[in-house]
Structures are given as structure tokens and as C-alpha cells.
Amino acid sequence: MVRKPLVAGNWKMNGSSASNEKLLDGILAQADSFPAVDVALFPPAVYLQQVQQRLQGTTLAWGTQNLSQFRQGAYTGEISAPMLNDFGCKYVLMGHSERRCLYAEIGLDQLVLDYIIAEKYGAALKEGITPIVCIGESPEEHEQGKTEEVILRLVDIIIEHSGVKALSQAVLAYEPVWAIGTGKSATPEWAQDVHTLMRERIAKHDQATAESVQILYGGSVKGDNASSLFSMPDIDGGLIGGASLDADNFVAICQAAASV
Ligand code: 13P
């Protein structure tokens, strides 16, 4: 099966009304150069309306960087899946390691966080929003050879929570923490091996779902390494941080995805 590539731009806590406008203009001006690629942008939530207004009617989609597992109520500072629907979000990121680190600081252990991510995943699916679940090992876990354990733990928990078929409406993103913002991307071979691991785990439950689920790689993807990563058979695109803040760099990555 040929999976459509997806390139997702995670702006993290960057941008301003003026700089967003410029970035969106720059990407939209070149959107014809990456046909047959799904592209989605993830601004800080306060800029959701700005991004929605600019992108609706185009081929680009948008979403937020996190969501609450709850639908509504006394959860100060949180944003729910129905609210994302109000702003036309097609996707939502969850489980990003930068969020995990912040939560870990307040004492939750990683297993508890995995279960919370599974609840967020369920909350997004319920509203018809595609969850993009970030999964990745820390530098310490990497050195200790725990990559497989960490990755498969979350895959197993989300399958246990919502069933394997739900993954056909979801996206997984392998983001090794040691590769994020460091300029040291995983090698295409390393990333491919981890993606295979995830796909094989899903295939144990359902072969068709395993073949259809998009699995992205994230961590120091740039215009010059995107092609070699995306040409791996199980890497279906990228989750891009720093390089998504510059129109030409981001477009170069989208073009790489279009040409593999
Ligand atoms: P960088 O592309 O800046 O390494 O960030 C990756 C990332 O965390 C995307 O979610």
C-alpha cells in the first residue's frame, strides 16, 4: 500500500501575528510545488483563528499542539476537542516530549502520562479530529537500550484504550528526544528500524491498519536530510520544529516529501 506523505509543522511557542502572516504567505505562495502531500500547521492556540482564516479553502490543514482529555469544565488553561472542532482543526498533536518533561516536573511518571495521552487520543477521535501521537525515547533511555520498550509501551496502551482499528484514523510520530532541536537527526536507518517496530506491533493486531497508518519522523529534519529520511519505506513524512518557522525551509521539506 502506498501511504500519502504528511508534513506537519510544529511551531511550538513561536510566532506573532505579523510573523505568522509572513510565514503563511510564504508557504501558500509555493503550495503548488508539493502536490499529493498532506501538510498541516500547528501554531500556538492563540493564533488558531488567524491560521484558520488564512488556510481555509487551501490544501493545508491546521491543528493545535495539545488538547485536554476532558470535554469541558473547570480545567483552567486547557482546550478541549470540541473547541478544536469549532476552529476547523483536522489534526491535534499530543504526547510531545516537551509537554512530557513539563508534566514530569510536577511528579507524574511516564506510565501515567502514557495513559493520559491515550485518553487525549480517545477524546480527539470522538470529535473526528486526527490525533498525531508523539512517541520517543529520552537520551538516557536511548543510551540504556530502552527505545523498544518505551515506544511499544505507548503503542500498546493506545491500542488497549481505543482498539487497533482506531489507528487507521490516527498518525504516529517517532520523535527521539535526543534528536529534537539538537541538529542531530536520527539516521534514516535508525528511524526506519523504529518505525518498522511500531508497524509490526500494530500488524500483530491488524495487518491492514498497520499498512495504512502514517508514521512520521521528527527531530532535526531539514531541507537537506528530508529526502533521505522520507525515502525509507516506513517513514511517511515528518514532524518539523525549527525548520517549520521559515517558509523556504519548510517548503523544501514538503517538496522532498512530494518527490520520494
Ligand atoms: P526540531 O525539528 O526543531 O528538531 O523539532 C522537532 C519537534 O519537536 C517537532 O515536534
Structure description:
- The chain has helices at 17-28, 48-55, 81-86, 97-105, 110-126, 139-143, 147-162, 188-205, 207-212, 226-230, 247-258, and strands spanning 6-10, 38-42, 61-64, 91-94, 130-135, 171-174, 214-218, 237-240.
- The chain is of the alpha/beta class and 260 residues long.
- The chain has one domain: Aldolase class I (TIM Barrel).
- β7, α10 (226-230) and β8 form a beta-alpha-beta unit.
- It is globular.
- The site of 1,3-dihydroxyacetonephosphate has 14 residues, from β8.
Q: How do the helices and strands line up, and which of them pair or pack?
A:
Elements: E1 6-10, H1 17-28, E2 38-42, H2 48-55, E3 61-64, H3 81-86, E4 91-94, H4 97-105, H5 110-126, E5 130-135, H6 139-143, H7 147-162, E6 171-174, H8 188-205, H9 207-212, E7 214-218, H10 226-230, E8 237-240, H11 247-258
Parallel strand pairs: 1-2, 1-8, 2-3, 3-4, 4-5, 5-6, 6-7, 7-8
Helix pairs in contact: 1-2, 1-11, 5-7, 7-8
Attribute tags:
260 residues; alpha/beta; TIM Barrel; 8-stranded parallel barrel; 11 helices; 44% helix; globular; binds 1,3-dihydroxyacetonephosphate
Summarize this structure briefly:
The chain is 44% helix and 14% strand. By secondary structure, it is of the alpha/beta class.
CATH architecture: Alpha-Beta Barrel
Beta-strand residue fraction: 5-15%
Q: Return residue spans where pLDDT drops below 50 for at least 5 consecutive residues.
A: none
Could you tell me how far the N terminus lies from the C terminus, measured between alpha carbons in angstroms? 15 Å
Structural category is: alpha/beta
Following the backbone from N to C, one meets helices and strands in this order, namely: EHEHEHEHHEHHEHHEHEH
Could you tell me the radius of gyration in angstroms? Answer: 17 Å
Biggest sheet statistics:
8 strands, parallel, barrel
The largest beta-sheet arranges its strands as: 1-2-3-4-5-6-7-8
Q: At the third CATH level, what is the topology name?
A: TIM Barrel
Number of helices: 11
CATH top level is Alpha Beta
* CATH homology-level superfamily: Aldolase class I
Question: What is the total tally of β strands?
Answer: 8
Q: What percent of the residues sit in helical stretches (DSSP H or I)?
A: 40-55%
